[in-house]
Amino acid sequence: MPSEQVLQQKKSEVENITQLMKQHKIVGVASLQKVRAPQLQAFKKNLAGKVYMRVIKNTLMKLAIENCKEKPDLQKLEEHLKGANVYLFTELNPFGLALALEQGKVKTTAKSGDIAAMDVIVPAGNTGQPPGPIISQLNSVGLPTRIESGSVWVSKDTLVVRKGEAIDEKLASVLSKLGIKAVESGLAMNVVYDDGLIILQDQLRIDVDGTRHSVEDAYAAAFALSLSIAYPTNENMVAILQVAHREAYALSIGAAIPTEETVEDLIRKAHAEMLSLSSRLPTLEQKPVQTEKTEKS
User: Fold this and answer.
1) Closest C-alpha among 106, 102, 116, 246 to residue 168
2) 120-181: CATH class
3) Which residues make beta-bridge pairs with 152?
């Protein structure tokens, strides 16, 4: 049986965790799988003051959840507490937090069974390896080779594994020898509790560029619509006034309504119309000649 001291330590730990959950709106659960200690320390340093990170045993976390009755639907978090986790307590937007963790990942050498983080293409060129068993190893994973200047060369760019596919032992060994890093290591947010809402990993993934373009397109469409119906807002007021001035100016010119702004253009327009009309009428000198010729004929 555990000693009284150990029981007191666990009780104190559960109380501390309970207070953390009461003090913070957001509770994130990130997997520690394939996360190195230096990476975890780097995350803590980068997020210091914004996020409190702590590695907690799932059993203790579940006890703390039971003690935190005032948090709505906090118990739903229990079913997601599996494996080794680090817990994040914060007030940050959960999507921004997940994005910060995603951006903090680093590429690393693959091991057998790892999942490729991207399409892995071995580029054509010198492998730096002398002829020998390396040739058959490269050929076994589909890499065409040749020997040149005493080294083994890959003949052409070759896709060896696609994003999301598992990397077998042979390929992992070859990629390691070629110095190609095919997997990413870092914290992966599994689930977030946000004041009664459970947000899962797939829901936390945001295509930042795609979302930005979508918002920009929506803004442009809304701006164009507001101009077309002359609906004034802080953003379009200047543009609406410019359109109104341009249309009023064009109307005054078309209707020949003189104003201080239009009088010069009206005179130019009248002069241009006069020149156009005069070019289509016979001159006074031509008229008698044409009449005389007509009478003789």
Assistant:
1) 116
2) alpha beta
3) 129, 147
Q: Are strands 197-200 and 125-129 parallel, antiparallel or unpaired?
A: unpaired
> Length of the chain, please?
297
What are the tens digits of pLDDT across the range 112-168? Answer: 888 898 999 999 999 988 999 999 999 999 999 999 989 999 999 999 999 989 999
Tell me the average pLDDT across 260-280.
85
Q: Write out the CATH class of domain 4-105+186-205.
A: alpha beta
Section 106-116 average pLDDT: 85
Q: Which two tokens stand for residue 185?
A: 């290591």
Domain positions in the chain are 4-105+186-205, 120-181, 211-279
CB 95 within 8 A of CB 150: no
